[in-house]
Amino acid sequence: MFGLMVRFTCKDEATAEAFDQLVGETIEKIRDGEPGTLVYASHRVDGQPLQRIFYELYRDRAAFDTHEEQEHTRRFLAAREALLASTEVDWLTLQTGKGTAG
Questions:
Q1: For position 99, what pLDDT does the model report?
Q2: Mean pLDDT for all residues in the chain
Q3: Residue 25: which residues within 8 A CB-CB, separation 6 or more?
Q4: How many domains does the chain have?
Q5: DSSP string covering 37-99, please?
Q6: pTM of the prediction?
Q7: Which of 19, 67, 68, 95 has a beta carbon 3.0–4.6 Å from 83's, enabling a disulfide?
Q8: What CATH number has the domain bearing residue 76?
Q9: Shortest CA distance to 37 belongs to which of 72, 8, 9, 87?
Q10: Would residue 85 count as lying in a domain?
């Protein structure tokens, strides 16, 4: 499996609202059309109203590459830039756990 965790910091409350709307539209398309995307979860952070954390888990690197090539993903990546103050990405290697085996 192949995964990542991303911490996004929005510019302000208005951009956080717009970011959440963009995320909702994007996740709907991921849910419906990306069987290799096992988990794609967006979280709010308690006490940090401008931060969002994504946890993404893919069947393998090829599934991630397929995700990145999708029109909805390209739209998300382009549109988010105007809404964010910062983005931090951690690439993950699964050691063990409980969840979807793919």
A1: 73
A2: 95
A3: 72
A4: 1
A5: EEEEEEEEETTEEEEEEEEEEESSHHHHHHHHHSHHHHHHHHHHTTTEEEEEEEEE---S-SS
A6: 0.91
A7: 19
A8: 3.30.70.100
A9: 72
A10: yes
